[in-house]
Specification:
The chain has nine helices and five strands. With about 200 residues, it is an alpha/beta fold. The protein has a five-stranded parallel sheet, with helices on both faces. Bound molecules: cytidine-5'-monophosphate. The site of cytidine-5'-monophosphate (C5P) has 14 residues, from helix 2, helix 4 and helix 8. It catalyses: CMP + ATP = CDP + ADP; dCMP + ATP = dCDP + ADP.
Length: about 200
């Protein structure tokens, strides 16, 4: 069984994907990390994320980079969003994601284009959403817990900018697959969102 979990930043898709993988005993791939690795590498090399050639060359990142906690930073997320608009980058990362999806026992992948491009044949597709306000609030609390400063307004603005870029890019934009089940987590706790996701998967024929 392939489970595709797509949605915007801070919608809860990562938490849901991890929990589904644990619950159903499937391997999980956070595909955002791959784009973050490319973005990070471009930043390290002093490259311009808007130059496709630089970004493509940077796709050859070492696997160990995926363990680097720097990948989770807001700055790297911004770089990831900028490199991810380049078709050459998406193409370079396609095969790795496709192989992961096709493992014999199945897999859970989360990202932006899993149900539309990487695994359109997925048995279950979830499109996880939440209001900008709810997502900004979550990000704000996360950052406070880490002792990092940013106002709610700044975070909401950054989320809007990233959503806009992800939704309007020409290649593999963030869009729900026609056969995806929408799950709005705005007013759900993480436990409630996970329980709802499990229910959706179990109800699939
Ligand atoms: O999900 P995460 O915030 O880690 O993703 C970082 C960026 O990588 C996103 O803003 C998006 O631009 C890009 N991305 C993508 N396709 C995916 C996963 C992530 O374009 N499948």
């Amino acid at each position: 069984m392939i489970i595709a979990v797509d949605g915007p930043t801070a919608s809860g898709k990562g938490t849901i994907a991890r929990a589904l993988a644990a619950h159903f005993g499937l391997p999980h791939l956070d595909t955002g990390l791959l784009y973050r690795a490319v973005g990070y590498q471009v930043g390290l090399d002093g490259g311009n994320p808007d130059e496709a050639a630089d970004a493509l060359a940077a796709c050859a990142f070492p696997d160990a980079l995926l363990e680097n906690s720097e990948l989770r930073s807001e700055a790297t997320g911004g770089l990831a969003s900028r490199v991810s608009i380049h078709p050459a980058v998406r193409q370079a990362l396609y095969e790795r994601q496709r192989q992961f999806a096709l493992q014999p026992g199945g897999a859970v992948l989360d990202g932006r284009d899993i149900g539309t491009v990487i695994a359109p044949e997925a048995e279950v597709k979830l499109f996880v959403t939440a209001s900008v306000e709810a997502r900004a609030e979550r990000r704000f609390r996360e950052m406070q817990a880490q002792g990092r400063a940013a106002t709610l307004a700044e975070i909401a603005e950054d989320l809007r900018r990233r959503d806009e870029r992800d939704r309007t890019r020409a290649t593999a934009p963030l869009v729900a697959a026609l056969d995806a089940v929408q799950l709005d987590t705005s007013s759900l706790s993480p436990d409630q969102a996970v329980a709802e996701a499990i229910r959706i998967v179990e109800q699939k024929p």
